[in-house]
Amino acid sequence: MSFLGLLSLSSFSRASTPEQLAPPTPHHAHALVVAESGSKISGNVDFTEEPDGMEVHYKLTGLEPNTRHGFHVHEKGKCDDDGKAAGKHFVKLSGSGTSSDFPSHYAGDLPEIVSDSFGNSEGTVFVSRLSMNKANPIADRSVVIHGGEDDVSSKSTPRIACGVIRRAPD
Predict the structure, then answer these.
(1) pLDDT category, 93, cuts 50, 70, 90?
(2) Pick from 49, 87, 89, 48: which is nearest to 97 by CA?
(3) Of 56, 54, 72, whose CA–CA distance to 152 is shortest?
(4) Backbone angles phi, psi at 71, to 5 degrees
(5) How far apart, in whole angstroms, are the C-alpha atoms of residue 168 and residue 170?
(6) CB of 113 within 8 A of CB of 58?
(7) CATH homologous superfamily of 25-168
(8) Rounded to whole angstroms, how far apart are CA atoms 58 and 75?
(9) What is the signed CA dihedral for 101, 67, 45, 79, rounded to 10 degrees?
(10) In this predicted structure, what is the pLDDT of residue 36?
């Protein structure tokens, strides 16, 4: 048998587990967003855990055209009572918010959503302070859309849409 034949046989004789052959599957979560407080909003928010944080993709319809909206993860996985059952913004951090585009007061603060002229909004953001199983886990919490822009110096505007974040099968 030639040297190349021995080399190819030896490479097939090593046992490999499926985990060694395939890259690890990222962890996913999903929230079906429904209208609250008389709004007409609906849509989806998908969360994908990456090694250094969380990718958040949202696709929403029924917003007022050309408006900005607060977008947050809230502490409880409930949306009853016009979204008030979702509780407060998720996990207070030290320091203060830096801007309405990306406040950093809470781990669950996400950049504002901006609707287009048809009342739709779609985008993807990355946040390093949320996870599925590590620091600040999001599963069984809620995502809330507020009725106006974030103002880091005052209380949030009313909750106009909410969805419970559920872990998706990998």
Answers:
(1) confident
(2) 89
(3) 72
(4) -145, 115
(5) 6
(6) yes
(7) Superoxide dismutase, copper/zinc binding domain (2.60.40.200)
(8) 19
(9) 100
(10) 93
Q: Do residues 35 and 60 lie in contact, with contact meaning Cβ atoms separated by under 8 Å?
A: no
- Domains of the chain by residue range: 25-168
| Residue 65 vs residue 155, higher pLDDT | 65
Model-wide pTM > 0.70: yes
Predicted confidence (pLDDT) per residue in 47-75, tens digit: 999 988 899 999 999 999 999 999 999 99
Average pLDDT over residues 133-154: 87
Which one, of 143, 11, 66, lies nearest residue 3 by Cα? 11
Q: In this predicted structure, what is the pLDDT of residue 152?
A: 65
Residue 1: predicted pLDDT? 47
Q: d(Cα 133, Cα 50) in Å, to the nearest integer? A: 12
What letters, b where the CB count within 10 A reaches 16 and e where it falls short, cover 59-88? ebebbeeebbbbbbbbbbbbbeebbbebee
Question: Token pair 């690890």 is at which residue?
Answer: 24
DSSP lists the bridge partners of residue 122 as 59
